[in-house]
Specification:
2 copies of one chain form a homodimer. With 219 residues, the first copy, chain A, is of the alpha+beta class. Among the domains of chain A are: 60 residues, Winged helix-like DNA-binding domain superfamily/Winged helix DNA-binding domain (Arc Repressor Mutant, subunit A), CATH 1.10.10; 74 residues, Ferrous iron transport protein A (FeoA) (SH3 type barrels), CATH 2.30.30. Chain A has a 6-stranded antiparallel β-sheet. In chain A, strands 1-2 form a two-stranded antiparallel sheet. Chain A is globular, with a radius of gyration of 19 Å. The interface between A and B is medium-sized, with 19 and 19 residues. The complex binds manganese (II) ion (MN) (4 copies). The site of one manganese (II) ion (MN) has 6 residues of chain B, from helix 4. The first copy, chain A, binds a DNA duplex (30 and 30 nucleotides) through helix 3.
DNA sequence: ATATTTTTTTAGACAAGCCTAAAACTTAAA
DNA sequence: TTTAAGTTTTAGGCTTGTCTAAAAAAATAT
């Protein structure tokens, strides 16, 4: 079944929201994510349900079906492969890729994505540390812990970022925090939940907001 | 001014038809090229004229304005750069690239196209021998002679193809004719205007139809 | 349990691009 | 020069995806 640009974006948005809220995705949340109004979302949910891409009963939120999930993951696969291409081969910074990848992810050509994957050397992760689904739409979600939830004193590495807005990523560049950086929480400041951290042997302070958008894996 | 996907395609189509018919492009020709109906073209011409991308008076055909020409050439630039990328880096055959490039040409990002150009080493021509416009939308149309119009007995090289459908390009692959191949017309067969040619030292026969879709430059 | 607030859906409209059928204009033929 | 044929435009409609306003349902508070 041939999906439109817009349908693909809705499926992707449902996938992302379902990760945070596995019980079902609400109309308002989806409207916010897709930058539309709830009324528009209602229309689209009806349409996607009719195409059996989602499970949906009035007033009860939406969930991806098998085929909807597959479609969403193939779009995400393309998005992330293009991000790798832009960073590795066109010297884009990691905060510059998302907007372009939002367009490139809708290009329809199986050959293209196959050859791109090959050209890139079958990468497993995108520049933000997110896993790249395989050609069957299967993904291995790596267990990630938010830095804000991590144990004080233990060694860890930055494995991904939750937020990937240019402003946030530029801030991380500024403090020289990237995927793979070593990190230890030295102290939690009770006053504002900010953290004193050791980042690749440099001591610095980061806000709770920042810590809530960095994923780490134990070393 | 932000152009839609569809508007970009119309401008490109007008550009291509204007090359063959500099006096102005007819509604029916444009409908054929864009695979729409003349009625739809009339609507769009009105819209493009209103945006000052074309000159257009009812019943009198269309011509690109300065800004319309620029816009068309920037789309063509992107199309051709992507074709080079697909052939040189993703090992696409020259008959497989056009369809994908039709999609990629509409991706909007100045940075992307700049970096792609750099990555490719600032190519001057696409895989079909067509010149790539520069970043200002300027193009140097190389003087090309159709093989069917070329002098018998003179040495020449294949410099471009007019038609670039997969079927035609696959036929050229089959007879091992590519951009840069050496070619001499040995004899014109009066009966059907077919040609006996010497192609890189092999003698073979090609139809008039084929000869009308190959451009050569004198050696 | 009832009332109030919030969320979701429906109703009705609109823009972009497309279509068919009919009218208007242009060109070619008689 | 009138008629016929071909081309182009207009009129009216359709689809996709969006919106605002109003109605309906669900969640929350009294
Ligand atoms: Mn992204
Ligand atoms: Mn990413
Ligand atoms: Mn092409
Ligand atoms: Mn080409």
């Amino acid at each position: 079944m041939e999906l439109s640009f817009v349908e693909e974006n809705y499926l992707k948005a449902i996938y992302q929201l379902e990760l945070e809220n596995p019980s079902g995705v609400s109309t308002t949340a989806l409207a916010e994510k897709t930058k539309t109004k709830p009324a528009s979302v209602s229309d689209m949910l009806k349409k996607l349900a009719q195409k059996e891409l989602i499970f949906y009963k009035k007033y009860q939120g939406a969930k991806l079906s098998k085929s909807g999930l597959q479609a969403a993951l193939l779009v995400i696969r393309k998005h992330r492969l293009w991000e790798v291409f832009l960073v590795k081969h066109l010297s884009f910074a990691w905060d510059e890729v998302h907007e372009v990848a939002e367009q490139l992810e809708h290009i329809k050509s199986n050959l293209l994505i196959k050859r791109l994957d090959q050209f890139l050397g079958y990468p497993k992760e995108d520049p933000h540390g997110d896993p790249i689904p395989n050609e069957n739409g299967e993904i291995i979600e790596i267990p990630k812990i938010l830095l804000s939830d991590f144990t004080t004193g233990k060694k860890a590495q930055i494995s991904a970022v939750k937020e990937s807005s240019p402003l946030f990523l530029q801030y991380l560049d500024k403090i020289k925090a990237g995927i793979g950086s070593n990190i230890i929480i030295q102290e939690r400041i009770a006053f504002d939940n900010s953290l004193e951290i050791l980042l690749d042997d440099r001591t610095l302070y980061i806000s709770e907001e920042v810590a809530k958008n960095i994923y780490v894996t134990e070393d």
